Amino acid sequence: MPDTTDADVLVVGAGVLGTSLAHHLLLRGAGRVTVVEAQTPAAATSGAGAGFVGLWAAGYADFFTDTDLQLEQYGIEFYRRLAERNPDIECRANGNLYLATTEPGWSKWVGPVLEHPLAPTGTRELTPRDVGTITGGVISPGSVMGGALHPGGIQISAGRATRALAASIRQLGGEIRENTPVRGLILSDGAVIGVLTDDGPIRARRVVLACGAWTNKLLRPLGHSLPLLRVVATRVVSPPSGVPDTMPTVMVPDLYGLWLRAHRSGLTWGNGDGYSPAYELDDAVGTESRPYYPELVDRLRERLLPGLRELVPAHDLRIDWWLQGIPCMTPDRRFLAGAVPDVPGLYVLGGDNEAGVTHGPGLGRLMAELVDGEGDGAEWLDASPYRLDRFAPDRYPTERDVADAMPARR
Fold first, then answer.
1. What is the mean pLDDT of residues 90-110?
2. CB–CB of 52/153 below 8 Å?
3. Separation CA 51–CA 113 (nearest Å)
């Protein structure tokens, strides 16, 4: 009987998760791999990412475990290798710097990073003076109590890295269909056998939804919905002001999760003031690839900027431009990777928990093993912590319920 399928595996979404998955499927020789993307690779949340890649499981985010740490270590090495072929992804091995501005901030955030049993070799405590030196004078020593440095962390351009993965997919013989929104799933006898697009149906043996904030829109007609909290996250970029590109990425948790890093001689930065759950905004969240909520930028300017000027007194912090994405959180802050229960042929890779760039390469490898093995399990890591069926149906009926269940960092 002739093969009537267009692909062996069809991946919906060309963000960092979808492109990582397709890349690893092709490396495994998983057959014909097609990625379908509503716009272009990295056009949505991945392209808005700040590009921090770190060992978050080693003291910063205690909901991550040693399994997640292995994903993080894999991601760092993966991007290093990718940068050897694609230097424009701007991979810099400057480390991750965790700072405290108060005694409680030190006790709650920085101390645990220094004392964590999974702390990488070379982790060290920094005095305020050390902080000023290692940041090239960007951070004022008088504004912090000190910090902890993870030396192995890197920073990349998340958008360029995703587009480099897309190019690799094509070089490996895969297909990416751009500007092809998926409108629905094709079913036969209860199994998913493809997707519907404006250009017609695309039939496949297996379909993986790696489309982030748009996942539940495709699942709901099948009677499924995953506990995903969509969050609009804002990243602002300041004008060039002589910031050295050797500066580590900087995290200041006691300033409502402040993060900042060098960006082409300027700074890119943000914190929780520039974030909002979808249910606090309007119904337009997720209707376009990139959200547009200038009120979140105004809130950053009003609430964060005065304190940030004390931390960074000598550099230009004006908001030159900004962009937003929609990361998706889960109730336990763990990822989603596996088969959709009771729907043969359908899988989901998602629940990035604002850590998709770091964990994307490892999750892509793990998911490729699950999909290529047709559910027989992964060879590399135990994938059971990421199973979709770990959440009972209807346990979290609304996005607000997901938010209420999420553990805080420490």
1. 97
2. yes
3. 21
Residues ≥6 apart with Cβ < 8 Å to 242: 265, 315
Residues 32-41 pLDDT 10s: 999 999 999 9
CA dihedral (184, 189, 194, 198) positive or negative: negative
Count CA within 13 A, CB hemisphere, residue 267. Answer: 28
Backbone angles phi, psi at 66, to 5 degrees: -65, -25
Q: How many degrees, rounded to 5, is the angle at CA 403 between CA 389 and CA 290?
A: 95
Is residue 359 within a helix (H) or strand (E), and if so which, with residue range? helix 356-372
Q: 243: pLDDT confidence band, cut at 50, 70 and 90?
A: very high
Structure confidence at residue 77 (pLDDT)? 98
Q: Which of 46, 28, 270 is nearest to 161 (CA)?
A: 46
**Which residues, 6 or more positions from 154, have their beta carbon under 8 angstroms from its beta carbon?**
53, 54, 76, 79, 80, 91, 92, 93, 94
Q: Which of 359, 340, 338 is nearest to 349 (CA)?
A: 338
The candidate with the shortest Cα–Cα distance to 211, out of 17, 10, 6, is 17
Facing residues of 176 across strands?
Answer: 35
CA contacts within 13 A on the Cβ side of 309: 10
Distance CA 169, CA 21 (A): 10
CA neighbours within 13 Å on the CB side: how many for 336?
33
Candidates 354, 334, 61, 351; CA nearest to 233 is: 354
Q: How many CB atoms lie within 10 A of CB 148?
A: 26
What's the whole-model pTM score?
0.97
Burial class for 182, CB neighbours closer than 10 Å (0-12, 13-18, 19+): buried
Rounded Cα gap, residues 97 and 146, in angstroms: 10
DSSP state of 49: -
Choose among 237, 265, 233, 261: nearest CA to 248.
Answer: 261
Q: Which helix (H) or strand (E) holds 85?
A: helix 66-85
